[in-house]
């Protein structure tokens, strides 16, 4: 009788130890990917079209609408850290997916209700008409809006925290064949995002603009419900990560607190004198132990043993615990260098959509593309390039470089960072061209949508296209980098570094827009580079140029950071 291979640290849906060839693998991961398709189908159109809803339906100013969106997106990413800790400590990653999906479904249903019932929103009004006096949201309706909006944000956070790590749990990093398949899974996450996004950015945006926002939010809620159904269908096949029972984040905080409290103690010359539990006496997995490294030595003070005191986790930590803190500390500069890329992304989801509203959206005959659907251009390209990159380019690069992933994670991230700078420079050039058309045709006061400029909206596709390629390199590279570098106990928290980076980028966008408007308030006729509702009289081109310069400086800093970084030994 063939002996069953059990998977350490993973159980099946009945709570029994998972069996290698029965649970997990690509078959189980496909359910995770399909669920992720439906989740992106539900919410990706919100990232590009909510400014239109805030501005046109709820009567926010353009800059206020942009800030409302970036705050919403930022919250959706920053909360992922809380969900990651909660999932690892209390409920597990799979249950976190189900709970988060239910919260997102509820939020979308509430948004649909507000868009449907006229008593919950202001009466219709043309905000682009300077003579109109459009009513604002009443305070009670504003509360309703933000409760619904941030329920969606919380649900998105939980999904983003749990889906990548739960999907990666289906593979064994120590098995060379499954390690390659796991790398393909991370590329598959972006592919799933693109498949869901292709429908969301076309059909759902069209429903928002032509059938009503209540319909758009309603079909989003249905898509989210289908995501939950698919996730549950894969339950019998999953390898489910066992709840740790202790918070890894809390253990990391203990290291820093203990290092500070022990700052006056002298480090032993021999690192073996630092505190660690005995492998022979503890029933622990090999992954529970990390060797000492001679870096960030000030943190080693957290593991100095003193005979006079009883063990106190806030004054004495294991070497492995200290090494976990060192790993995260080492990844922090890389994390910091990627924040500005999301700052650039935020502009493509806000101000670039407002640009598109002023341009000719005709494709053929009477068929028009909604400006918010412009990101479909890089999405369609990525649908074809991701399989090519994963199945053809990576194996070829692997033969040349010897790296399992073709090029190193840091090289992949760097390519995306420089492309994001080029995208912003391209956006500045396109905005100069758009404004020159408005000026040459005496249409600086033209009403968006109703009086389109005689220039095709597809001129904006260049900036979207370049940034789409940057996405594939940087964001997937970051996800792989954080997951592969982190030890077993930090997998979920480390993948949330990507979402936290994006959150801070969105928040930074809000702050930068306000700073730029205040700094330029008295030197422009519009009251600031980005003030007011008429972008034909704003200076968006200068703002894009500023972002291009900031991105270039950031890339130079990243080159130094990546040169200094030493990959963690997997032995």
UniProtKB/TrEMBL annotation:
- Broad class of where this protein is predominantly found: membrane
Q: Which InterPro entries match?
A: MFS_trans_sf, POT_fam
Question: Keyword set for this entry?
Answer: Membrane, Transmembrane, Transmembrane helix
Query: According to the UniProt entry, where is the signal peptide?
Result: none
GO CC, alphabetical: membrane
Places the protein is found: Membrane
Q: How does it sit in the membrane?
A: Multi-pass membrane protein
Name the residues that span the membrane: 28-48, 68-90, 97-117, 143-163, 184-207, 219-238, 327-348, 368-389, 410-430, 462-483, 495-516, 542-561
Q: Which Gene3D superfamilies match?
A: MFS general substrate transporter like domains
Q: A Pfam family name for this chain? A: PTR2
Q: Name one GO molecular function term.
A: transmembrane transporter activity
Provide the family line.
Belongs to the major facilitator superfamily. Proton-dependent oligopeptide transporter (POT/PTR) (TC 2.A.17) family.
Return the protein name: Major facilitator superfamily (MFS) profile domain-containing protein
Natural source organism: Gossypium mustelinum
Lineage at the top is: Eukaryota, Viridiplantae, Streptophyta, Embryophyta, Tracheophyta
């Amino acid at each position: 009788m063939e002996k069953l291979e059990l998977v350490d640290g993973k159980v099946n849906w009945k709570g029994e130890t998972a069996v290698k060839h029965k649970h997990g693998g690509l078959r189980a991961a496909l359910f995770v990917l399909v669920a992720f398709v439906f989740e992106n189908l539900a919410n990706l159109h919100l990232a590009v079209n909510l400014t239109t809803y805030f501005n046109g339906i709820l009567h926010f100013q353009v800059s206020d609408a942009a800030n409302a969106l970036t705050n919403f997106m930022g919250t959706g990413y920053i909360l992922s850290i809380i969900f990651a800790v909660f999932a690892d400590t209390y409920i597990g990653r799979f249950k976190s997916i189900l709970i988060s999906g239910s919260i997102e479904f509820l939020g979308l249903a509430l948004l649909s209700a507000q868009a449907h019932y006229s008593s919950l929103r202001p009466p219709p009004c043309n905000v682009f008409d300077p003579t109109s006096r459009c009513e604002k949201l009443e305070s009670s309706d504003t509360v309703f809006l933000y409760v619904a909006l941030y329920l969606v944000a919380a649900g998105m956070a939980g999904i983003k925290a749990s889906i990548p790590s739960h999907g990666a749990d289906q593979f064994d990093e120590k098995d060379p064949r499954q390690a390659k398949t796991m790398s393909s899974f991370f590329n598959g996450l972006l592919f799933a995002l693109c498949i869901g996004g292709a429908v969301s950015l076309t059909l759902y945006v069209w429903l928002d603009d032509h059938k009503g926002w209540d319909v758009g939010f309603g079909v989003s809620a249905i898509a989210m419900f289908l995501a939950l159904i698919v996730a549950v269908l894969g339950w019998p096949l999953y390898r489910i990560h066992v709840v740790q029972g202790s918070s890894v984040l809390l253990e990391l905080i203990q290291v820093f607190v203990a290092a500070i409290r022990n700052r006056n103690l002298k480090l032993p010359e021999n690192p073996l004198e630092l505190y660690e539990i005995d492998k022979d006496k503890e029933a622990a997995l090999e992954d529970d132990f990390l060797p000492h490294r001679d870096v960030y030595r000030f943190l080693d003070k957290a593991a100095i043993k003193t005979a006079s005191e009883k063990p106190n986790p806030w004054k004495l930590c294991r070497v492995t615990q200290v090494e976990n803190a060192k790993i995260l500390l080492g990844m922090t500069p890389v994390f910091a260098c990627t924040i500005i890329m999301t700052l650039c992304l935020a502009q493509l989801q806000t101000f670039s959509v407002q640009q598109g509203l002023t341009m000719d959206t005709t494709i053929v005959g009477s068929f028009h593309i909604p400006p918010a659907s412009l990101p479909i251009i890089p999405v369609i390209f990525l649908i074809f390039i991701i399989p090519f990159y994963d199945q053809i380019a990576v194996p070829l690069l692997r033969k040349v470089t010897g790296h399992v992933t073709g090029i190193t994670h840091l090289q992949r991230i760097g390519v995306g960072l420089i492309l994001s700078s080029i995208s912003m420079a391209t956006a500045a050039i396109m905005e100069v061209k758009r404004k020159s058309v408005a000026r040459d045709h005496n249409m600086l006061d033209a009403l968006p949508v109703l009086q389109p400029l005689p220039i095709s909206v597809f001129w904006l596709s260049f900036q979207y296209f370049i940034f789409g390629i940057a996405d594939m390199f940087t964001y997937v590279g970051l996800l792989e980098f954080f997951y592969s570098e982190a030890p077993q106990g930090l997998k979920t928290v480390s993948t949330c570094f990507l979402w936290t980076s994006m959150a801070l980028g969105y928040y930074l966008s809000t702050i930068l827009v306000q700073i730029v408007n205040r700094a330029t308030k008295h030197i422009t006729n519009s009251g600031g580079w980005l003030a007011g509702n008429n972008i034909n009289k704003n200076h968006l081109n200068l703002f894009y140029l500023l972002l291009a310069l900031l991105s270039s400086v950031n890339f130079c800093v990243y080159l130094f950071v990546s040169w200094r970084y030493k990959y963690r030994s997997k032995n």
